[in-house]
Amino acid sequence: MFGLFKKFKDGLAKTVAAITEKTHGLFGGRAIDVSSLETLEEALYTADFGVATTEEILVEIKDAYKKDKELRGQQAAAIGATVLRRVLAGSEGLLGDGDGPLGRPSDPGAPSGHALPRNPTVIVMIGVNGSGKTTTSAKLGWLLKQDGKSVMLAACDTFRAAAVEQLKAWATRLELPIVASHTGADAAAVAFDAWQAAKARGCDYLIVDTAGRLHTKSNLMEELAKIRRVLAKNDSTAPHHSWLVVDGSLGTNSIEQARVFHKSFGLTGLVVTKLDGTSRGGAIVGIWRELKLPIYFLGLGEQPEDLQPFNVENYAKAVFGAEA
Ligand SMILES: Nc1nc2c(ncn2[C@@H]2O[C@H](COP(=O)(O)OP(=O)(O)O)[C@@H](O)[C@H]2O)c(=O)[nH]1
Ligand SMILES: [Mg+2]
Q1: How buried is 174 (Cβ within 10 angstroms: 0-12 exposed, 13-18 middle, 19+ buried)?
Q2: Res 97: pLDDT
Q3: How far apart are CA 81 and CA 74, in angstroms?
Q4: CA dihedral in degrees (111, 112, 118, 121; nearest 10)?
Q5: Which residue's CA lies nearest to atom 8 of ligand 1?
Q6: CA–CA separation, 27 vs 16, rounded Å?
Q7: For residue 38, what pLDDT is reported?
Q8: In percent, how much of the chain has pLDDT > 90?
Q9: The 3-state secondary structure of 12-79, one letter per residue
Q10: Mean pLDDT of 36-58
Q11: Cβ < 6 Å from ligand 1: which residues?
């Protein structure tokens, strides 16, 4: 859907460019030699694929090169893509019941007109300031709406003055319903009201934006715990998803951040943003290897349609220079 592969390719263009520039267009098709293997290794490190994955890719390409001295760059790229597919197996987070990237309609089994009102699926966005929580909340709301789902936004970052206005502006632009209060309001109370509103409207999803918090800010940590308790009071199974929104341009540094949040909150998945602005897009692989937390979405730009369901095949193909 939405021309996925092209989105990945465009969004990861800086990462791809960093690799192709360093390897002087190796994947364009010329023959492999010892020096091109060295530059490839360097390029993969630069793109933040990490030691383990870079070594795995190099070992397999070298093996193939030993067997076939005529090995071409394109074949080496195909080997790299195969390693990525293998390493990233199981890393795709699937929202919904798994039928397509965003799942099925909310109540497929119920006879029409007799469907019991369901509780909304609740997604809480967590992360440090500036990681992309607010924009991701809005973009995800839009994506789900395109997929035929009904969505409610909850502006639970009541900590910073501009935060509520920012999400409200997105909600207006994307025509999404929102529950918001004033700066300084009790974030958990907003979450409670938003859940009630989502339930009353029969919304499929409630997306909860929260304040940026560092693990050292214990009051903010406590606030998030309170948001969760309040949601669970409405529906003991909520929140269904607690995602860390992490800035992909931090590269492997994001792993440590994710570890700290995971320890405090028990994350259920990740959204990796700003991959369009970095040449370090290989970091996703290290994040998955280290944390084994499913990656639900990638932020590949600032427009609503730039939030894309994570897809291993498209990622592997984009990174290793596939043409289509
Ligand atoms: N290029 C790019 N910018 C992004 C992406 N996601 C978020 N941003 C920008 O990052 C900045 C911080 O985002 P915001 O959602 O306010 O972060 P928050 O503090 O976690 O809520 C904003 O200027 C966003 O437009 C992305 O995927 N790509
Ligand atoms: Mg925000």
Answers
A1: middle
A2: 57
A3: 11
A4: 100
A5: 132
A6: 11
A7: 93
A8: 70
A9: CHHHHHHHHHHCCCHHHCCECCHHHHHHHHHHHHHCCCHHHHHHHHHHHHHHHHHHCCCCEHHHHHHH
A10: 94
A11: 127, 129-135, 212, 245, 273-274, 276-277, 299-302, 306
257: three-class secondary structure by DSSP: helix
Phi, psi of 121 (to 5 degrees): -75, 125
- What amino acid is encoded at 303 in this protein? Q
Amino acid 306: pLDDT: 95
The residue whose CA is least distant from atom 26 of ligand 1 is 274
| Calpha distance 177→147 (Å, rounded) | 16
Which residue type occupies 99?
D
Give me the residue label for tokens 């909310």.
106
Among 280, 257, 281, 277, smallest CA distance to 267 is for 257
Q: Whose CA is nearest to atom 7 of ligand 1?
A: 132
Residue 98: which residues within 8 A CB-CB, separation 6 or more?
none
Q: 3-state class of 207 per DSSP?
A: strand
| DSSP 8-state code for residue 298 | E
User: Beta-carbon neighbour count of residue 13 at 10 Å?
Assistant: 16
Token readout for 58 is: 């190099």
